[in-house]
Amino acid sequence: MTRDLPGKVWSMTPVEAPRPTVLIADDSAVMRRMLRDVLAATDRFEILGEAGDGETTIALCQRLSPDVLTLDLSMPKSTGLDVLAALAAQRSRVRVVVVSSFSPTLVERALDVLDAGASDLVAKPKPGESFAAFGEAVAAAVAAAATGRRVAPTDLVTPRVSIPRATRGDGEASRVLAIACSTGGPRSLGQLVPALGTRIGAGGVIVQHMPVGFTAGLARRLDNSSQVTVREAATGDRLAPDTLLVAPGGSHLRISSSGAFSLDDSEPIGGIRPRADVTIEDLVRVHGSAVVLAVLTGMGNDGLAGARAVREAGGIVLAQDERDCVVYGMPRHIIEHDLADATGTLDELAVLIERAMGTPISARRR
After folding, report:
1. Which of 48, 153, 256, 274 is the most buried (most CB within 10 A)?
2. Looking at residue 76, what DSSP letter applies?
C-alpha cells in the first residue's frame, strides 16, 4: 500500500531483512564449489566470493567484510591459522566457521582456533561418509555464526549476578555437576573449568557438541589448565569427586542405575550425538535432586529437556548470561522457559557452581 504526499511516495511494503553474507576459503576448487552449492541450496545466504589461499582470504575479508567466513586450515600462502591471527590483529568482526580435515595434530591446533574465537568447526567428510549430513552441518554452523557474535573481553559490561530464584539443597557433598554446551563451548569451558577448584561434589560430566576425535583433545587441554582431572569418558567409568568426564564426540553418554557410564552409538537426536539431554536425564534418574546443571553457549535447544528433568527432581539449573555467549541459543531456551535458578557470566557461574556444589543451600524461596 502507498500514499501520495507532495514530492514523495511512501511504501508500506515490509522490507525483507538482508541475507547473511559468506566468503568461502579453501584451496580445493572442488570443495569451494561443494560449499557454494550447499549454502546456495538453502537460499539463506549471499555468497560474496571465494578464496583459494590465505593471503587472498585476508584481502577479501578486508575488502568485502563478510558476515561469515568458512575457512580451511590447510591452505598455501598463509594457512587458516595465519588467517585467524590476521583477523584477530585487525579486530575483524567476521565470524569464522572452520571447515577442514582434521589429523590428531590439527585437532590440537583447531582447539587453539576455537580459543581464539572461531565460532564452530565442521569436519570434511571422509570417504564413505554422508555428504548430505556434512552439508546440513555446514549450513547449520554458518547460520549459527551469522546470528551469533564474536565476543572480545572489552565487549563485556560490568559483571552482574542474577539473584537465584530457587535455592535448594540437601547433601551437597553428593551433588553431581552436568555442563552442556555447543558453539563457543570450548572457549567457555577453558575459562570456567579451571576456576572450579580441586573437587566438584561427587563429580561431573561435560557434554560438548564436537566432531569425533575432538573431545579427547578438549579434555586434555582442560586437564592441563585445571585443578580437577578432566578426561574423555569411557565405558565403565564412574563419577569421582576430583574428575570431570567429557562425553566423546559421536556417542551418547549414558549412565546405568548402578552409576556406571557407557557409550551409546544409537542415532543422533535432533542431529546431535552426544545429546546433552540424554546424559542429563540419566543423571537425574540415578542422582535425583543432587544434580546441578549449567547450560552454556550454543545453538539449538539441547539441554532444555534435561533442565526440565533437573527442576522436576528438585535439582539446580544455571544458565550462562547472554553477554558472554558466542551463540545465545541453549541458555536462552532455559531462561525463556523459566527453568534457570540463576544466570551469570562465566566468572559468576564459577562462583554459583562452587556454592551449589560445596556449601549448604537453604530451602527454595516461594
Report:
1. 274
2. S
Say yes or no to pLDDT of 62 above 60. Answer: yes
pTM, to two decimals: 0.77
Position 53 confidence tier, pLDDT thresholds 50, 70, 90: very high
d(CA 350, CA 294) in angstroms, rounded, equals 10
d(CA 275, CA 208): 9
Written as nine digits, the cell of 219 is: 579434555
Count of beta carbons in the 10 Å neighbourhood of residue 11: 9
Judge whether 249 lies within some domain: yes
User: Catalytic positions, please?
Assistant: 182, 209, 302
Looking at the structure, tell me whether residues 132 and 180 fall in a common domain: no
- Residue-number span of the structural domain to which 330 is assigned: 172-358
* Residue 332, pLDDT above cutoff 90: yes
- Which residues pair with residue 298 across a beta bridge? 328
**Measuring CA to CA, which residue among 99, 92, 31 is closest to residue 64?**
92
Per-residue pLDDT averaged across 258-267, rounded? 96
**Is-cis flag, bond preceding 211, omega within 30?**
no
State whether 208 and 131 are in the same domain: no
The answer to whether residues 312 and 289 touch, using CB atoms and an 8 Å cutoff, is: no
Pairing of strands 2-5, 8-11: antiparallel
Do 330 and 258 share a structural domain?
yes
